[in-house]
Each structure stands twice: as structure tokens, then as C-alpha cells.
Amino acid sequence: MHRKTPLHLATLAASLTLLASTASAGTLYRDPYLQKVGPDTATVAFRLAANCQAEVRYGEGAADQSAVSQDSGKAHAVVLTGLKPGTEYTYEVSACGLRTPLNRFRTAPVPGTRSVHFITVGDFGTGGSNQRKVVSAMVKRNAELFVALGDNAYADGTEAEIQNNLFVPMEALLAQVPFFAALGNHEYVTNQGQPYLDNLYLPSNNPEGTERYYSFDWGHVHFVALDSNCAVGLASADRCTRDAQKTWLERDLAGSTQPWKIVFFHHPPWSSGEHGSQLSMRRHFGPIMEKYGVDLVLTGHDHNYERSKPMKGDGIAADGEQGIPYLVVGGGGATLRQLPGSKPDWSVIRDNQTYGFLDVTVVDGTLTAELMGHDGTTADRFTLQKDLPPQEPLPEGELALVVEGERGVAPHRALFRATPTLTGAAVTWDFGDGGAAEGEAVEHVFALPGQYTVTATATQGAVKQTATALVQVAEAESPGEEPQTPDPGTPDTGSPSPRPGLPDSPEDPDDGLSASSGGCAAGPTATLLPASLALLAAGLLYRRRK
Q1: Cis before residue 411, ω within 30 degrees of 0?
Q2: pLDDT tens, per residue, the chain with 546 residues
Q3: Global confidence as pTM
Q4: In terms of CATH, what superfamily is 27-108?
Q5: Integer Cα distance of 546 and 543 in angstroms
Q6: Number of helical (H) and strand (E) elements in the chain, helices listed first
Q7: Which candidate, 87, 90, 77, places its Cα nearest to that of 36?
Q8: Strands 260-264 vs 221-225: parallel, antiparallel or unpaired
Q9: Where are the beta strands (DSSP E) in 88-231?
Q10: What is residue 470's three-state secondary structure?
Q11: Which CATH class is domain 399-474?
């Protein structure tokens, strides 16, 4: 018989098929999602389908560093430390002998950096087609962070709904864009939002140390997330109180040094939609936000879009007064609703036809926002302006850099010292071979021959100084010797306290899709590949060459 496929290739194909089926059997229950990303840290959270050791491999360009999970069971949150501000990192999750495809994310810029790009929307967590269209459009914007405005997991915020209506349809976005969320009333249906909080790893810088309300800086923008459910009386006193949240908000805003301040939560103080204005939020929190110069308030709850004029107290700010524009951005996926009555005089625009999100850039003293439909159309656009003081100029002179060991033979150890003119500046190093370090005086071993550009960066706030040096590394004289690669050590992978475990068998999502669509078995972008696959293929091809 004439064989069209050589036997060794047929064997290879059969082996690949077998290993591919093995990969599908051991998948992530939930794909990686990014939490608490800052200038020098990031948390990569994920859920496994089985209990096993897990790690996150990451790096600039190549994923050549490793952080081992300190969690046991299926719920994991791996903290990456020592990262560079405003830098793109590649990462993958390795667990149970399998690994995810590579993803990328960018760390937050140095605080005070005058360029920020974020996306925001609420009322999306249905798991339906409209939500998926909005998510697809958001992914294309390549934003630095995603701010969610509540009702992120309909209808009751249960464990299954959080998985199927939040993490499954949002997986492509949450794997690339850091996720900062506020609680909605639908999450509160189940144990006052506890399942939702158990699945997220948010900042917890309030006196209670909870994640219900918090703040963080991104560039020159100070973001504040409030729990409006607590403020309107839906929380028990042991979880959250309105007065405690008000006291914290005043202290937080008073202590912020960033020129832009944005507050986000679920229930709108100003809305002419079906639910209308939440007067408790307006009268208890509005005066505090006005006092400390909040620039923009973002909310959801009503399933439409609405933008107010600058408001102060219970009315429109007078000419010459600083007011706050209040936005309802509730077109993320839940059914859009009719707008009752005519548009009030304080409302600039109302839209209940657009499933979409708000795309916001803040560059220097200009904030530009666009309501983007999932089809790429723009339904609203506005700008806010403010005068900012000029940025501190770069100090005169260059960063002084001293190198001991500019030439050597692999493996070659070199010593470096940087002397910044910036008082109290932090110095970071890029050695050009994937290695990095912090501190004014460091040493590094170059394991392989080559020419390496070493870059030192001194940072103080938004001011930077840099200097570079070349290091030449030659091959060892004895061709029989292989360079010794030093053990870089294992990074500190401190982890948040473990969250409650997940069901052994994922429940079916409400939209009829299999639960595996939320994990790595969903397709080429979510399938874990065994490391042994490449070894097997290489071995068979080697036999073929013989």
C-alpha cells in the first residue's frame, strides 16, 4: 500500500492529538485577571480546575522570571513585585504541568505622570450578547485600567453568576487591563456582596481594611471607589456604615496631592432615568466632593447614559462656581430602559439607545471623554479643563554612573553605582539581558557572551534621570565549558489571604455556554499547552533527520 503520510509523521500527529486532549482535561476554571496593579506591583488572580502547585512566569518581552503561588487549593492570587512603572510585561500561568498562552499588561505610571487612559461602564454583568459586544469594543481601546460601576454580576451576585456573567464574558479584557470595581445593588442581594468581594482583590486602604470602598492613584489622577449600597442603608453595621465612609472620604480627598480627582460608585446622585436621583448620596457625599474639588463623578444603576451640567448642592452651579458633572454610564449590557418624562434642565444629554462605554483620557490639564458604542460610533463627547502648575523641570546634569567590570568573560560579574542629583530618588536598573535591580549600588552576573546596554533610572515623583553604559562579555576560553548561570533567586510572592474555594464542577452559565468557555479550554487563546508537547515533537523530528 502506498502511504501518503510517513509513519514517523503519523506517530507525531497521533501524539499531538493525545497531548492536546490531555491539555483540555486539565484547564483553568477561570482565566487570569489583573488586580491591584500599581507602579511596581501587580496581582495575577486565577482559579484552577484541580488542586496543584501554580506559578506565574513574567518579564519584559520574554516571561523569564517566576513567582510561585503561596495559595493552596483552586483559588490563587500571585503578587508580582519589583516591577517597573509604566512598563509592559508578558505573563503566563503554569499549573498542573500545563500553561496558559501569553498575555500582556502595563504597570501604572509613576504617580504624577500627566497622561492617563481608562475605560468605564456599569450594569453589564448579564453574560449576554450585548455585554460581549461592549467588551470586544473595550479590548480594542488598549486602556490602562478599567473602572466598573456596579451591577457587574446579575441577578443576585452569586458565586456562579460572578463566574458566568462577569469572568467568562470579560476574560479577554480582564487578562490585559487592570480591573477596579464598585459594588452594585445586584451584588448585594447575596450576603451583602460577600461572594463578589471574595472573588476580587481590591485595594483596602480604609480604616476597616475592607474592599468595599477604597482609593488609589494612577498617574496624576486620584480615583475613589465608594460603596453606595452601604451609604443608602443596604449594609449591616458590621459590614459598613455611611458615617464611617463619609469620614474616610473627607480624609482621603483632603490628603490627595493629585490634580485630578474622580469618584465612582453605583447609585447616581443625579439621574432622570427609571430609578432617578439618589438623594442620600447627593446630600451626604456631594458637599464633601465639592469641598475638595472632585472633577467628575461616575455612576451606573439606570440602564442608560446621562451627563449632567456642573452641579453644586441641589442645583446647577452658578457662573463662576466650580460644579461637578455627574454621569450615568449604565449601557454595559443589561437591557436599556425607557427614559420617563422630558429631559430636565440640569441634564446635558440622555441616551437609552447605545450599548457602550466611556473612554477617558486625562492629559495634563485636559480630560476628554467619549461615549463609545460597541459598533465604534461616538454618542457623546465632552472635555474638562483645569490649569495645572508647570511640571518640575529636569535637573541640570546627568545621572553619574560608575561601572567596575565593563569587559569580561562569561559568566561575568560587574558592579554598578549610580549617583542621582535628585534628593531621595529611587534608582532602578535594566541590565539589557532581562535582569533588573533596585538601589544606587548593585551587582549583576552576565551569564552569556554579548554586548549589553545597562540603563540606570533615578525617579523622584514625575521627574526622572537616566544614564547608560555598555558591558562587553566574551566567550569562555575553553569551548568545552558551559557558562554557569547564577540562580537569580525566587521573588517575594506575598499573597492576599485565601478566598473561599469554588465548586468542584463549574455550573453552567445562564446563557447556555459550557463553563469551560470561561477557562483555558475555550479556544486557542485559552488552551493550556503541556511543556512535554514541544519535547515530544522535537524528539520525533530528530529521529526523522537520522
Answers
A1: yes
A2: 333 333 343 333 333 333 333 333 345 889 999 999 999 999 999 999 989 999 999 999 899 999 999 998 899 999 999 999 999 999 999 998 889 999 999 999 989 999 999 999 999 999 999 999 999 999 999 999 999 999 999 999 999 999 999 999 999 999 999 999 999 999 999 999 999 999 999 999 999 999 999 999 999 999 999 999 999 999 999 999 999 999 999 999 999 999 999 999 999 999 999 999 999 999 999 999 999 999 999 999 999 999 999 999 999 999 999 999 999 999 999 999 999 989 999 999 999 999 999 999 999 999 999 999 999 999 999 999 999 998 766 455 568 888 888 888 899 989 898 888 776 788 999 999 999 999 988 999 999 998 899 999 988 776 788 888 889 888 876 544 444 444 444 444 333 344 543 333 333 333 333 333 333 333 333 334 344 333 333 343 333 333
A3: 0.72
A4: Immunoglobulins (2.60.40.10)
A5: 5
A6: 9, 31
A7: 77
A8: parallel
A9: 88-95, 98-99, 103-106, 115-121, 145-148, 179-181, 214-218, 221-225
A10: strand
A11: mainly beta
What is the DSSP code (8-state) at residue 158? -
CA angle 353, 354, 360 (to 5 degrees): 145
**Which class is 109-385 in CATH?**
alpha beta
Query: DSSP string covering 292-345, please?
Result: TT--EEEE-SSSSEEEEPPEETTEEPPTTS--B-EEEE--SSSPP----SSPPT
**Intrachain domains 109-385 and 399-474 with the same fold:** no
Q: Which residues contact 478 (CB under 8 A, 6 or more apart)?
A: none
- The domain segmentation of the chain, as residue ranges, is 27-108, 109-385, 399-474
